[in-house]
């Protein structure tokens, strides 16, 4: 096996063993054994049918009618049994695949959401493109294709063993020819075409994902694009992405269809004449019955097909190898502990208060120092207002409080994140019902519809539930609500969740002054300790502490 193959196999096993040696191994392996048994039975039927085929030809050439019809009846029995076996193992194969996929998807999702890997991936990491495609598509093809390959390999082994005996019994030359044929086929396909095709498939997967992601972004930002009248810009960009898909695909089919098939088909079709060439002489001198050539051709073809499975399914295999590669790199990335920033790292100390001491904050890659030596402490129930020019680092300070950014020095004292509710600058509307929106980020909260209705009334969204048909109706809320309504809805989460601490990043910026002041009055009533970022002077009266961050003191570039 060359190095290319070894890497693929090693990478494959690193992921596959998680399931097959993991906590579900008993059930999974039992199904696999059952699959093996069905395959074995299927091979036996195949061998049997092949022998009967030779027998029918021999009976015809001997003009023996009784022998012929007896053969037909037996063959029909075998054909019916093969139908049952094939459908049984096909069903079982797909069942194993989908169970494995469910398990592996779950595993990837757990890691994707743990330690906020998804945030790091979408903000700081450029190596792992399109994680969504890796979880949705690559996991699927990994599981389903591997089962398919497993079936093919096991079936091949059975076929090779069973039919080799038959070939051996007819002529040893057949077995030798088969051996040489197989070695040649294997080394040419893997050695010559393997690496190139895998690389092309890898590129194709990436480019297809980029193209799709481009289209999803347009859907998500449809209104802004329409307002800007940016359609021609967007169309050009998407067309460029598709062009990449097109160009790579052209290279791919050049290799997979033209160059590979020029070798694959003639080489495959050789099996049609080779047995006749090898046995021809013996038939001509009357040492063998004609039916033996038919039998040998069937057996030779089956073994050659099985041994050269990799050649016949080479395209699928290289595509599969590309999926393994993408999944393995993703798996390795998720597995490692989330990177700690090298030397200058802000300390977070869990405490029953919110305070920062000598905090110097930098952008994640240390390009810019946002502010230096900031110290401030909040007493329970107090509010802190952070003001300052755009780009001065107000949101970044909140990112540091949440632990999303940690480049810099100093200490942050804060409670567990579960006790803090963050309302980001862009109100985030999850997919789901109105109730889901209100109780977010909790999945379940013990509040009645009546209480929710009252809360909506207090944030000045009185008829929202009625407008959309109740609390259980699913909508794309970011489309059907105005920005100000979304901000009020997000604010209502504070009244539902009643967190000890709330962090508001310009959470009322889209509201008129009356609505904004109403929300802050409600916030004061709850006794929550809070930090707000805002620009309007009218906010000052709701906060005991006010700090102003100024534009970056230095650039580290
Ligand atoms: N992921 C990032 N990597 C590097 N720099 C970033 C990143 N995100 C933001 N910045 C930079 O950090 C600086 C501070 O950004 P921040 O969002 O904290 O500003 P802000 O004061 O909240 O601004 P605004 O009032 O406009 O919302 C900006 O110069 C911004 O360009």
UniProtKB/TrEMBL annotation:
SUPFAM superfamilies tied to this protein: ABC transporter transmembrane region, P-loop containing nucleoside triphosphate hydrolases
Keywords associated with the record: ATP-binding, Membrane, Nucleotide-binding, Transmembrane, Transmembrane helix, Transport
CDD domains hit by this protein: ABCD_peroxisomal_ALDP (cd03223)
Domain named ABC transmembrane type-1: residues: 33-319
Transmembrane regions listed in the UniProt entry: 69-92, 149-168, 174-194
Main location class: membrane
Membrane topology note: Multi-pass membrane protein
Gene Ontology MF term list: ABC-type transporter activity; ATP binding; ATP hydrolysis activity
Residues annotated as signal peptide: none
GO CC term (a single one): plasma membrane
InterPro entries membership: AAA+_ATPase, ABC1_TM_dom, ABC1_TM_sf, ABC_transporter-like_ATP-bd, ABC_transporter-like_CS, ABC_transporter_sub-D, P-loop_NTPase, Sigma_54_int_dom_ATP-bd_1
A Pfam family reported for this protein in Swiss-Prot or TrEMBL: ABC_membrane_2
Record's subcellular location: Cell membrane
Occurrences of domain ABC transporter (ranges): 354-557
Protein name, per record: ABC transporter ATP-binding protein/permease
């Amino acid at each position: 096996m060359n190095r290319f193959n070894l890497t693929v196999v090693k990478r494959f096993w690193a992921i596959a063993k998680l399931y097959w040696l993991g906590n579900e191994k008993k059930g999974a392996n039992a199904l696999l054994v059952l699959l093996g048994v069905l395959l074995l039975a299927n091979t036996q039927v195949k061998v049997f049918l092949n022998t009967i085929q030779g027998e029918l030809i021999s009976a015809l050439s001997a003009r023996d009618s009784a022998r012929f019809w007896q053969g037909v009846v037996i063959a029909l029995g075998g054909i019916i049994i093969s139908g049952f076996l094939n459908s049984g193992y096909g069903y079982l194969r797909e069942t194993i695949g989908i169970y494995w996929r469910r398990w592996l998807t779950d595993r990837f999702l757990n890691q994707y959401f743990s330690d906020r890997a998804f945030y790091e991936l979408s903000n700081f990491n450029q190596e792992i493109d399109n994680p969504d495609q890796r979880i949705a598509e690559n996991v699927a093809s990994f599981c389903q294709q591997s089962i398919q390959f497993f079936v093919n390999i096991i079936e091949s082994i059975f076929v090779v063993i069973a039919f080799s005996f038959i070939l051996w019994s007819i002529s040893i030359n057949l077995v030798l020819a088969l051996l040489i044929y197989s070695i040649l086929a294997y080394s040419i396909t893997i050695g010559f075409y393997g690496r190139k095709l895998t690389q092309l498939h890898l590129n194709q997967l990436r480019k297809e994902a980029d193209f799709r992601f481009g289209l999803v972004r347009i859907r998500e930002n449809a209104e802004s694009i329409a307002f800007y009248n940016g359609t021609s810009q967007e169309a050009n960009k998407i067309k460029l992405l598709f062009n990449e898909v097109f160009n790579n695909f052209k290279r791919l089919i050049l290799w997979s269809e033209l160059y590979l098939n020029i070798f694959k088909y003639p080489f495959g079709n050789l099996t049609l004449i080779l047995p006749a060439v090898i046995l021809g002489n013996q038939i001509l001198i009357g040492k063998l019955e004609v039916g033996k050539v038919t039998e040998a051709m069937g057996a030779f073809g089956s073994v050659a097909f099985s041994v050269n499975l990799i050649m016949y399914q080479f395209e699928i295999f290289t595509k599969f190898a590309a999926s393994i590669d993408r999944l393995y790199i993703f798996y390795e990335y998720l597995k490692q502990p989330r990177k700690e920033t090298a030397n200058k790292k802000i300390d977070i100390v869990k405490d029953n208060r919110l305070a920062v001491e000598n905090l110097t904050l930098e952008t994640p890659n240390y390009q810019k120092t946002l502010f230096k030596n900031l110290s401030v402490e909040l007493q329970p129930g107090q509010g802190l207002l952070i003001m300052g020019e755009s780009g001065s680092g107000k949101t970044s300070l909140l990112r540091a409080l949440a632990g999303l950014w940690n480049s810099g020095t100093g200490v942050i004292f804060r409670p567990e994140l579960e006790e803090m509710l963050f309302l980001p600058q862009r109100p985030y509307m999850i997919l789901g019902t109105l109730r889901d929106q209100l109780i977010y980020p909790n999945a379940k909260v013990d509040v009645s519809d009546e209480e929710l209705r009252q809360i909506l009334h207090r944030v000045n969204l009185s008829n929202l539930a009625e407008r959309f048909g109740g609390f259980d109706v699913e909508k794309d809320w970011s489309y059907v609500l105005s920005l100000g309504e979304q901000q009020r809805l997000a604010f209502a989460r504070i009244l539902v969740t009643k967190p000890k601490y709330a962090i508001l990043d310009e959470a009322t910026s889209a509201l008129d002054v009356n609505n904004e002041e109403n929300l802050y009055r409600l916030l004061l009533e709850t006794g929550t300790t809070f930090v707000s970022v805002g620009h309007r002077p009218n906010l000052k009266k709701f906060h005991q502490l006010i700090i102003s961050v100024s534009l970056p003191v230095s650039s580290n570039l």
